[in-house]
């Protein structure tokens, strides 16, 4: 790992600005302006000052912060992650809109990234009093025993992922691009993701950590309000025709639907990979990918389709998942290494369609 002090003298420009060419499964780029949060005091300089840990520690989590694990993890180049939410005392999450939970002001999220057994980065998300969110990344310095706030423009090359491949800390603008494709920018903390009925074929699935928050725990402990009563007897799951289809739809939901959905800036593309609680979620996803023309043209082809049933190699979605060429890859941000397990899963899914 490069020395943190040296990295801080060379802030990276936003990753989005570095990349060129078509970005998404349909070759479109989200160009809508992103609202910036109002100023609410400076971000803490050190991760230990954000409230994640007990005072004086950078290993012992403060008891008010609760661990959680989504059933469909976001692929981040094989990073091992831990995630926590900190709710303000005596507050609740409002599930009046089951698809878009509303979190009380002061809610904080942390996500820790480790590579090769070492903590490298911890990302921070906070809801402010005016309802906006702010984003930050903290880079671990082993010599300091703490993580320091990264520059707004991000940091390149903080850890080696593979020969000649380095992990970059994203810019805050990159965080907004990925998180603000829906009205609620919290990813991974939703009813489907916190369901205790875990998908056994989900790539990179994680065991539910002891003492962590699940949908059942949120409801039983009064931390979630205005939720559909049927959740108490029927936990949310993807209604797909096969185990492979369920896992594939879950992977696309977790890794792609924060941009490709029916409500965000890219809704006009009619590429909806959302699955959460929509009874027709799977069929909607299928209708927007199978046999649909793609504006991304496969090399050497006169025209391309998003998914050609039975033929993954002719499907733009599959092709872009297994590419890391900047003008072709999907997702466009946050990954430099192909998720081979997911590519194999999508290969089986498309062949079975």
Q: What's this entry about, in short?
A:
This protein is of the alpha+beta class. 18% of the residues lie in helices and 18% in strands.
Which radius of gyration do the C-alpha atoms yield?
A: 20 Å
What's the mean pLDDT score? 89
| Structural class by sheet pairing and helices | alpha+beta
The figure for the number of domains is: 2
The shape is: globular
Count every helix, treating DSSP H or I runs of 4 or more residues as helices. Answer: 8
Say how many strands there are. Answer: 12
Strand order within the widest sheet? Answer: 1-2-4-5-6-7
Write down the secondary-structure element order: HHEEEEEEEEEHHEHHEEHH
Helix content: 10-25%
Query: Unreliable segments (pLDDT under 50, ≥5 consecutive)?
Result: 1-39
Outline the biggest β-sheet.
6 strands, antiparallel
Terminus-to-terminus distance: 44 Å
């Amino acid at each position: 790992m490069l020395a943190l002090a040296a990295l801080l003298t060379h802030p990276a420009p936003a990753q989005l600005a570095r990349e060129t060419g078509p970005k998404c499964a349909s070759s479109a780029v989200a160009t809508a302006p992103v609202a910036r949060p109002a100023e609410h005091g400076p971000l803490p300089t050190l991760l230990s000052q954000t409230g994640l840990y007990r005072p004086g520690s950078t290993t012992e989590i403060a008891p008010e912060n609760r661990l959680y694990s989504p059933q469909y993890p976001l692929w981040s180049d094989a990073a091992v992650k831990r995630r926590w939410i900190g709710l303000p005392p005596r507050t609740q999450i409002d599930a009046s809109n089951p698809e878009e939970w509303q979190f009380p002001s002061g809610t904080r999220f942390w996500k820790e990234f480790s590579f090769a057994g070492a903590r490298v980065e911890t990302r921070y998300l906070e809801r402010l009093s005016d309802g906006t969110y702010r984003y930050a990344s903290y880079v671990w310095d082993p010599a300091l025993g703490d993580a320091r706030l990264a520059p707004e423009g991000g940091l390149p090359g903080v850890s080696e992922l593979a020969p000649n491949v380095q992990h970059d800390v994203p810019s805050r603008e990159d965080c907004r691009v990925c998180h603000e494709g829906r009205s609620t920018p919290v990813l991974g903390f939703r009813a489907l993701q916190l369901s205790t009925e875990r998908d056994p074929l989900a790539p990179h699935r994680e065991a539910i950590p002891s003492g962590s928050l699940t949908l059942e725990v949120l409801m039983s402990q009064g931390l979630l309000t205005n939720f559909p009563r049927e959740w108490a007897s029927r936990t949310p799951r993807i209604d797909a025709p096969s185990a492979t289809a369920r896992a594939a739809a879950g992977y696309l939901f977790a890794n792609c639907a924060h941009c490709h959905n029916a409500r965000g800036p890219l809704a006009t593309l009619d590429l909806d990979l959302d699955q959460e609680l929509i009874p027709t979620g799977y069929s909607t996803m299928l209708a927007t990918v199978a046999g649909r023309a793609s504006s991304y043209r496969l090399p050497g082809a006169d025209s391309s389709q998003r998914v050609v049933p039975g033929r993954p190699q002719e499907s733009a979605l599959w092709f872009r998942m297994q590419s890391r060429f900047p003008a072709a890859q999907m997702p466009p941000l946050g990954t430099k290494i192909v998720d081979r397990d997911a590519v194999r899963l999508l290969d089986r899914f498309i062949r079975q369609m």
